[in-house]
Amino acid sequence: MPKNLYSSSLELFEVSFPKFFKKVLRFFKDPLKEPISPESLMLARDSEKKLSKGLLKLIIHGYTPKLGSVVDRYCENYRLRIYTPLSPEPFPVIIFYHGGGYVLGSVESSDPLCRKLAKDLDAVIVSVDYRLSPEFPFPTALEDSYSAALWVNDHITELNGNAKKIYVMGASTGGGLATLVTLRNKKRKDFEISGQILIYPWVSGVFNYESFDLFKEGFVLSKKMLEIFRKCYIVNPKDFQNPEFSPIYDKDLSELPKTFLMTASHDPLRDQGNGYAKKLLKAGNRVIYKNYLQTIHGFFTYYGIIPRGKKIYRDIIQTVRKMLYD
Q1: Is 267 a catalytic residue?
Q2: Which of 106, 172, 222, 246 is catalytic?
Q3: Whether this model's pTM surpasses 0.85
C-alpha cells in the first residue's frame, strides 16, 4: 500500500490495488441495466436511499451530529435541504450537488454526508434535489442547479451566510454540475462564487480516456453504467461535447474561482478529471489537485468502509477548511 494518501502531481502514475478490496468489490453490481423501465428506476432509486440509513449509515458516518437546524425548502421544480451548524456566526455557504449520473441520487441519499460536512466544516450546506433523467433530460439538471444557486444568493441573509463566501461542491455528476454552475455564473455575473470543490467530477461526455478502459468494470462505477447514464440524460449525441454538459470543452476556462479537484486512482472518470485540472491551470486559475491512491469512485461518500477512507476524509476536510477560512 502506498505510503502517501494522494499524489498532487498532474502527471498520473499507476499504483497497485489491494487484492482483498478488489475481491470485495466483486459483490457490487450496476444498479441499472437496459432496457430501463419505470419499475427498474424506482427499484434502483429506493435501493440507493436505503444505503443512507440504518447500520451502514452508522458504520460509514458514525452517529448523527448535532446541528442548529435541518430544514427543507421547496422551490418551483426542486427541493433544497439546508443544514445549519450550531454556531451563531455568519457562515460560509456551500451549495452541494449530489452524484448519481443524472439518474440516481437525492437529498436523502446524501443526507448523512451533508450533516457531517455542516458540522466538520462549520458551514451552511444547501443540498440541491435537482430533477433526474430520463424523466427530465438535458439541460434540466443544470437549470435546476443554477436556479438553486441564485436562490442561495438571494436568501443569503436568511441563511445566516456570508455573501462573500459562497462555494459550490459536488461529487461525480454533482462535481460536473458544480463547475457548470460556476461557468454559467462567470458569463452571467449574477453573484460571486468564492470557490469550487470538485470530487471525482464527471466533466466530459466523450469516453476516450485511458482510465475508461483500465477501470471499465470491477471498480464500482463501470463504463457500461456511465454509458447508460449518458443515454438517459443526453437525448442528442451531438450534445456529448456541449459545454453545458461537458465543461472540459468550454472554450474559455479563465478567471474561475479557486478550485479543489480530486480524483480516485482506480476510477473510469480519473483521466478526464485530471485533464480538467490541467486545463484550469493552463487557463491561469488557482487549482489544488489530489489524486487519492488505491481508491475508487465514491470514496468520499463511503469513506467509512474503504481502506484509509477516514484518513482521506480528514485530509479533504482540512483542505476545504483552508479554502473557506484562509
Answers
A1: yes
A2: 172
A3: yes
